[in-house]
Design brief:
By secondary structure, the chain is an alpha/beta fold. Helices cover about 40% and strands about 20% of the residues. About 0% of the residues have low confidence.
């Protein structure tokens, strides 16, 4: 890697034209980097005994330092949203809540036996699926299972994902009483034609009502999830959706690129692909959406995320404390994230593990008093170092390189980094890398250049492994 500062040499060009050209050029299939190494590089041959030993050791260190984070996957949904790539189980039978809560309780007990001290809970996030599929009574039971004989950290943060159609006033009152202050609603798109084709009918009035209910209940941070690139979406439609959304002033907005992965998500095979926006149309959807958000007081946090300046996410971005993990961007950084439930992922800082993705196998493992971990990876020193570089770029927009990694950077990363610098996206030399203002829009691409697994195995950058950056 050259010792002199490397930056762009693009001649002056109309900024809008240049930005559009770069977006088209870098609209490649790359990971979202909620972990490093990314999931395709994890191993199915995974030692449960070694995982338990590693968990126990890391738990004590992290628990004493800052407490732990817990993610609980609640997979049930009343109906199928055909765009969704999450691990879910479609059912109208709410009797399934009982068996699932019993399994979560037993899985928590299995981990409690490895802790040897009272856990300090810093963060809880309920994801899905549809967490508000569960009754308020059962959500209270779930959180009480976790809180019993645990210490709640004074700076705790509890959050939940809710569906605008089934999140009730009672849900919100119960969750607030349990300590929840953040909620995320899956809005996706408000165009009736788009809603019909993705099988998610939720009028704007439903979103407006549940947002007001959440604020009245006392929730201090409300996020909306939006998706661009859905079938039948148009520039006019996305513009109307975002203007309706910002009229409700959510504190955060996640503006995700629709990941069309029908080879792994069977529901997406129901689409006629001719209804999907072409690549250039999809890019314009993003540009228009971002333009409206930025003009109305939202700030670009990083990969797909925007927030108001009054929100904690923006403040964490400004003071350098922003963190990124499997729950996305977060203001917390405990060093240990424990995943409970089917398909849930745990992050120890030095290892990752994912639970079995099928309910049957998950239940079977728990019934036999075994952890349900199915696959994962134990990290090398190299993994941890390059994971830190990628996390720094994701959260801080810059990173410093350890001189010991110069040879690796030169061998595997240099050609890709030079192209980014020539396009004005980064500045770098042998000691550091920094995003330019333009490069901030291409964080996933920059991170992929520092992904040694990807650079050593370029065949895995094929479209049927990762979704497109835009």
């Amino acid at each position: 890697m050259p010792g002199t500062l490397r930056s762009n040499h693009i001649c002056n060009m109309d900024n809008e034209v240049l930005e559009n050209l770069l977006i088209k050029k870098y609209n490649q299939a790359v990971p979202r980097y909620t972990s490093y190494p990314t999931v395709p590089f994890w191993k199915n041959e995974f030692s449960a005994a070694e995982w338990q030993k590693s968990f126990s050791a890391r738990f004590h260190t992290c628990n004493a330092a800052s407490g732990i984070s817990i993610y609980i996957h609640l997979p049930f949904c009343q109906s199928l949203c055909t765009y969704c790539g999450c691990n879910k189980k479609i059912t109208a039978n709410h009797a399934v809540e009982e068996q699932y809560l019993e399994a979560i309780g037993e899985e928590w007990n299995l981990y409690r036996r490895l802790m040897h001290e009272m856990p300090v809970i810093r963060e809880i996030h309920l994801g899905g699926g549809t967490p508000t599929f569960f009754s308020p009574k059962n959500l209270k039971r779930l959180i009480e299972i976790i809180k019993t004989n645990s210490v709640i950290h004074p700076y705790y943060e509890f959050s939940i994902e809710g569906h605008p159609n089934n999140t009730t006033k009672q849900h919100l009152a119960t969750l607030f009483a349990l300590g929840f202050r953040r909620i995320s609603f899956g809005v996706q798109d408000l165009d009736p034609d788009v809603q019909r084709i993705i099988n998610r009918i939720q009028p704007f009035e439903n979103v407006e009502q549940v947002t007001e209910l959440a604020r009245t209940a006392g929730f201090r941070s409300i996020n909306f999830d939006l998706i661009y690139g859905l079938p039948l979406q148009t520039i006019q439609g996305i513009e109307k959706t975002i203007k309706q959304v910002i009229s409700l002033k959510p504190d955060r907005i996640a503006f995700y690129s629709y990941a069309h992965v029908p080879w792994t998500s069977r529901g997406q095979r129901l689409f006629d692909e001719s209804n999907l926006p072409a690549a250039e149309e999809k890019i314009q959807l993003y540009i228009k959406g971002r333009e409206i958000l930025m003009a109305n007081g939202y700030r670009d946090i990083g990969m797909d995320h925007f927030s108001l300046e009054t929100d904690g996410l923006y403040k964490a971005k400004q003071d350098g404390s922003l963190n990124r993990n499997f729950m996305g961007y977060t203001t917390q950084n405990t060093g240990l994230l424990l995943g409970l439930g089917v398909s849930a992922i745990s992050d120890l800082g030095n290892a990752y593990a994912q639970n079995d993705k099928t309910l049957h196998n998950y239940y079977e493992s728990i019934h036999e008093k075994n952890l349900a971990v199915k696959r994962g990876i134990f990290l090398t020193d190299e993994d941890r170092a390059f994971g830190r570089y990628i996390r720094d770029i994701s959260c801080k927009g810059q990173t410093k390189f350890d001189p010991r990694h110069l040879a690796l950077l030169e061998e595997f990363c240099l050609p890709a980094l030079e192209k980014l610098a020539d396009d004005g996206l980064i500045e770098f030399d042998k000691t550091f890398l920094k995003l330019t203002a333009k490069g901030h829009y291409f964080i996933r691409n920059v991170c992929s250049c520092l992904d040694l697994y990807l650079q050593r195995n370029r065949s895995l950058s094929a479209p049927q492994t990762f979704s497109k950056a835009i």
